Amino acid sequence: MQSATMRTRHARWITICILGLAALTIVGRSPLIKQLPEPVAVPDFVRLKQFTESIPVQSKVNLNDYPDNNMTSMKMSELKTELEIRRKRVDDICQIIENETSSFHTAMSKLIIDTNHGLSWCPIYKVGSSTWMEHFAVLGRTFSDLTVDLIRRNILQVNIIARQAFPNYDVETMLEKIKRTKKFLIVRHPFERILSAYRDKLENIDGREYYYKKFGRHITQRYRHKNASLDTRIEPSFTEFLRFIVEEKYFDEHWAPYTQTCRPCELKYDYILKFETFKRDEDFLIQELGLNKYLHTRGDVRHVNPRGPTTAMTSRKYFKNVPELLIKKVHQVYEKDFKLFNYSPADYYGLTTKQP
Asked: Which of 24, 194, 252, 263 shows its CA 20 to 30 Å from the CA of 109?
């Protein structure tokens, strides 16, 4: 009888402990999602590791393999020539522009180097970076059903697990490693990238409190005209954001110039991919480097701004309200990016207003 009573008490104690832990987990995780600054750190309860085997095809998330030989030899040859022209242009322009003053070590620290598969990449945010972070997580075998679920719930960011698979070393070691790889970069029309950063980080405070506290509040207080009494939004307008960039040249990684972020003149990338032809260029690189058999996509990990993608048409709607003189000053800030990667601001000048 006493033994039965003790077993009952023991069972009740276990039940109370389980319920208590569950309550702490629920209470503890909710503010984690809302209050942690971006980028979100890895929660303590997630212990990432590199998997020793390939991710099983029977995984609960959808896997879409990259097919072998999805481009003909002729098409591959044409694209190789086009990308070589891009690379050669960067080399030529680098001979006539001034070197950047940003730290070369900082640029090196951004690289993701995969010597096993022979490629290195310098991530530029708002230019297809989430897609390639996902690819490197797959190549590094740190992608699993658990991490995908945490990414979907905004508890974990894909760049965390990608960088865990390919950690940074000292500069000398990294320089030695990249010699054994092909280096690539992805770029985009600078004006569209700036707008994409604004729409994703500053246009709406909901879910972006970190960026509002760090940038948005300062921008509206300093760059909102006194006569803008009709503007009751606490978030900065796109024009106010551009004035902030021009006047202060304070760059977050989402809108920093390519030349400062990845130092193309010093690192001399082998392939320059473009966001405007992203899928085609990506398919070429994957096939060129023989990555078809390693990569797959997980179709339910979304990377698109919930307010919609930033297209050329979207850009025109925003830029038509920007003063012409201001947009020319923005171009001056990013002039090296425009020259190196063969982009033109001309189409945007005709859209802007004449007001100061």
From this structure: 194
User: Hey, which residues does 185 pair with through a beta bridge?
Assistant: 272
Q: Which amino acid is at 60?
A: K
DSSP3 helix / strand / coil % (the chain, rounded to 5): 55, 5, 40
- Listed in sequence order, the residues at least 6 apart from 219 whose beta carbon sits closer than 8 Å to its beta carbon are 202, 236, 240, 241, 243, 244
Beta pairing class for 182-187 and 271-274? parallel
**Do 353 and 321 contact (CB within 8 A), yes or no?**
yes
CB atoms within 10 A of CB 127: 23
The first and second tokens of residue 194, run together, are 């700036």
d(CA 283, CA 92): 27
Give the model's confidence band at 208: pLDDT under 50 very low, under 70 low, under 90 confident, else very high. confident
From its phi and psi, is residue 72 left (phi > 0), alpha (psi between -120 and 50) or beta?
Answer: beta
Q: What DSSP letter does each residue of 51-104 carry, written as one string? A: -SSPPPTT-SS-EEEPPTT-S-HHHHHHHHHHHHHHHHHHHHHHTTSPPP-S-H
Cα 64 to chain centroid, rounded:
22
DSSP state of 42: P
For 266-319, write each residue's pLDDT tens digit.
Answer: 999 999 999 999 999 999 999 999 998 888 655 445 555 666 778 778 888 899
- The CA distance from 300 to 334, in Å, is 34
Q: Helix (H, G, I), strand (E, B), or coil: what is residue 15?
A: helix
C-beta pairs of 159-163 under 8 Å, 24+ apart in sequence:
159/39, 159/123, 159/129, 159/130, 159/133, 160/39, 160/40, 160/41, 160/42, 160/48, 161/48, 161/137, 162/112, 162/133, 162/134, 162/136, 162/137, 163/112
Residue that has been written with the tokens 């246009």 in this structure: 203
The helix (run of H) or strand (run of E) holding residue 274 is strand 271-274
- 257, 259, 262, 266: CA torsion to nearest 10: -170
SS3 41: coil
